[in-house]
Design goal:
Helix content: over 70%
Number of strands: 0
Bound molecules: protoporphyrin IX containing FE
Strand content: under 5%
Order of helices and strands: HHHHHHHHHHH
Number of domains: 1
Oligomer: single chain
Shape: elongated
Length: about 230
């Protein structure tokens, strides 16, 4: 049996200590609560700016744009969990994916509510006419409709009810919802396409990572396990 040198033993103890502390942090409900609070910051800032009367000359447009941006950002952050988990071998990161996904849904709901309330005054005929007439609204609506079943089936009970395979297949809709959101953004900008393009490149990189992962086809125990949220 090989004998460890004192230096490598010390390094081993340190590495184990750091890993234990890191695992404790990832398992802690305080970390979850902190992440929840962080995800609420964009909404809190909107409320704060609203009270300050600081939502620009066109508050509705400002809120629509702000919540639209945060929807795409949260979708991309949610999609980054699997690559990060794989690259850094941190299966516990999956614990946070459901919350991040639900925050995308929260921001898109506020986004759409602003549109329904202030742009369309809840007039079903006007909403339908707009959805049919303006392609960017059509594709945005498609994105939202795809996110609804994902939010509804995001619980552990729904994973069990659907079965992990079917659940995973359904939750692949997130790729198409994100793509729809990016196309929606790209179609609505008049001249400066840098931001939607940047989101498009990020989505393409995240998808490339997945394609490589699927091609290498080496499922790990963490992937096959029907955790509260499985792979997205
Ligand atoms: C996945 C779903 C969606 C995503 C990711 C999304 C994202 C976005 C983004 C990023 C913007 C532009 C923000 C900026 O200019 O900085 C935006 C604007 C907008 N979105 Fe969405 N959106 C989605 C769904 C919807 C839906 C369902 C509707 C309404 C039916 C909608 C209506 C609008 C409107 C009216 C604007 C402002 C357009 C303008 O000022 O010209 N979006 N959205």
């Amino acid at each position: 049996m090989p004998i460890r040198s004192p230096v490598s033993t010390l390094a081993w103890i340190c590495a184990n200590f750091i890993e234990t502390v890191w695992k404790k942090i990832l398992f802690s409900r305080w970390t979850k609560a902190t992440l929840f609070a962080v995800c609420l910051i964009p909404a809190a800032l909107l409320v704060w700016r609203g009270f300050q009367g600081d939502l620009t000359a066109n508050p509705v447009e400002y809120i629509e744009h702000n919540t639209g941006d945060w929807t795409i950002r949260f979708l991309l952050i949610t999609l980054s969990v699997t690559p990060l988990r794989k690259i850094f071998t941190q299966p516990l990161l999956t614990r946070y994916r459901r919350m991040l996904g639900l925050f995308s849904f929260f921001y898109v709901c506020v986004h759409m509510l602003m549109y329904l309330t202030f742009d369309q005054m809840f007039d079903p005929a006007a909403i339908w006419a707009d959805v049919v007439k303006r392609p960017y609204i059509t594709v945005g609506t498609a994105g939202l409709l795809m996110l609804i079943p994902l939010a509804v089936t995001s619980t552990a009970a729904m994973v069990r009810r659907l079965g992990p395979k079917r659940w995973q297949l359904l939750h692949r809709l997130i790729y198409f919802a994100t793509l729809a959101g990016i196309i929606h953004f790209y179609w609505l900008v008049k001249s400066d396409i840098r931001e939607p393009l940047m989101y498009g490149v990020i989505l393409a990189l995240l998808m490339l990572f997945r394609v490589r992962m699927w091609l290498s086809n080496k499922p790990t125990s963490a992937e096959t396990r029907p955790l509260t949220a499985t792979r997205t």
